[in-house]
């Protein structure tokens, strides 16, 4: 048996949405597998352990506010969470990191996602900062067919480096664009200022990134945006909490007004599930200490509820 890659979830709710806790990824049997990745690739020593590393636990703790009981009907998804089907949803805990080896988090994250994919399970990823999709998407390099990246964020995230770090939270889309198994990139909700300069904007457009500002989204609607995303694709969804409107997810370091609404994000998830196949989803950059009545963590749970319910209803796990 190989070395452990994860540690069990912490206090309170031991898992996301009452799922079974497992830590043996070598013998994983699951349809849906939750994985927490608390630690990214820090730009400064102060960022090594920041409040976003507490987000996987905070999101799990919101489980009973997002889903009161598994058997209850949920009007967002048209049935109970698991649709009265024999779905096995597990929580693999949080990726192990070592303060003496800060690269361990990414290595273990990639290895853990590879094992989840090998088991045929759908990964649901709890961040952590927005660097974590880099090791997650690396793990898809041996999967069938190209991936279409669908990205909700206020910020572009195309920096090549910050402080010499090339795989931090300002660079995930730049690094993902370099992966041969990723094809189309759709960035939704972009607005205000982030780390991008004109040169990053130019590089993104030169690659062919489809950049849909929040204002274009509000003007044309999410249905029109979904029409632009090719049907029949294999979609990976990455959601930065600051891409959502602060009224939905206030617990962020960089709140930007005019963001993606819960209704729009829900429509995007259901639309992608039904026009192709969603192969994974992460939600990152919640800063729990800045939350208001836990609404950010509850909203994160609710977005995962919509993904889970929609994929089950669409027959992703039918045998």
UniProtKB/TrEMBL annotation:
Kindly list any coiled-coil regions of this protein.
Answer: none
Q: Which SUPFAM superfamilies match?
A: Arginase/deacetylase
The record, for InterPro entries, names: Ureohydrolase (IPR006035), Ureohydrolase_dom_sf (IPR023696)
The similarity annotation says: Belongs to the arginase family.
Q: Which Pfam families match?
A: Arginase
Q: Which organism is it from?
A: Ancylobacter moscoviensis
Q: Which UniProt keyword terms apply here? A: Hydrolase, Metal-binding
* The protein, known as: Arginase
PANTHER family under this entry? ARGINASE/AGMATINASE, GUANIDINO ACID HYDROLASE, MITOCHONDRIAL
